[in-house]
Amino acid sequence: MSSASKGAAAIALVVAIVGGYLWGRSDGQAGRVAPLTETASAKKAELDVYYPATESLGKNEMRVVALGTGMPSVRPKQAAACWLVELGNGEKFLFDIGSGCHERLAAQKIPYDLIDKVFFGHLHVDHMGDLPSFWLGGTVMNRLTPLRIWGPSGATPEYGTKHAMDLMEQMYVWDIGTRGGVIDFRGGQLDVTEFAFDAVNEVIYEEKGVTIRSIPAVHGLDGAVSFILEWNGLKFAYSSDTIPNKWWAEHTQGADIAIHECFLPSVLLVTKQGFAPLEALNVGTQGHTSPEQFGKVMSMTKPRLAVGYHFYNDFDTQPEVMRRVRKTYDGPLALALDYMVFNVTKDEIRVRMSAVDEEIWPSPPMKKKNPPDTSKAIPFSDFTKSGVIPYPEIVQPIYDEINEIYDTDYEPVFK
Ligand SMILES: [Zn+2]
Ligand SMILES: [Zn+2]
Asked: pTM here?
């Protein structure tokens, strides 16, 4: 088997498992997995895979892609929290941008100029850890528009998003210094909107028919929120991190797709992660939402599809998480894995796995690139310059090659 066909087989198996849970629900046997049959042909499985950049989105359709579904300690199978929402009107939104998610985003093959809006539910590293790489790496990967960021205030200004972004810009002053005079750095601008963490269901974004509201969450400290996006009669709700709360219960009622944290059961935090029992109880039920609490919340709010995330989703944990969710919820459910894709319309919610292209390169820029503003280049000291071995007999022919092809007359900096 080639590695590509092995990959396809693995994806097909995952799809079959996911599908099994959905079938299990629809036949009224809560949580029972339908048996795989010979009729689940390879051809059918192939059709159930989402190949990024090969499918246009219907004009009334929403696509949600899980780019990070795991825990703060990222692992090859699951990055930390990140969700991409794409709409039929062309708009795209990132909700959280946790550690490890950037490569999953790259695998979606979306030009960087088209993903310039990031919403943070709170400022834990597993919800914002890949921001620097997406922000500054994105400038090299052809994002030529400023990165727009929305995040909550905190109890005091230094706990708010604006302060965090100001400090991030300071933290990366050396990185920024290397790029300013060398590349078209328009994508290095940050456009930060901080909104009140305690605003209840207030609009924080309204453009092109898309409305995003925030509601307070209960997690960590004051300054955590959840989001509700509405567009074209479809409603997407995303908890980021929270324990069950009255704002989610009231305002996410009847969402088409509700993505809510569903943490590892406390007993598994002890047995598999080495937590002390009291730690496991605190983290697993008072700081995060246990599977049983998740199920209760979904029973109260009745989304068309409930999606649980924020746990290590493996062959030995998923059945236990599922069993506990099913104590309190018997509705439509998916337990998320990275690369799970949800196509949402008023008629149907289709759940598939996305194929992963490990050889993806960044897309060409959407806008025309400007030449770098060399006046912004910060020069080396005489000391560092004194160390250069310029190898003109090697470098000059490289310049000659480019100058001949592009009819330019550039010269090496170091001669
Ligand atoms: Zn958190
Ligand atoms: Zn988290």
From this structure: 0.88
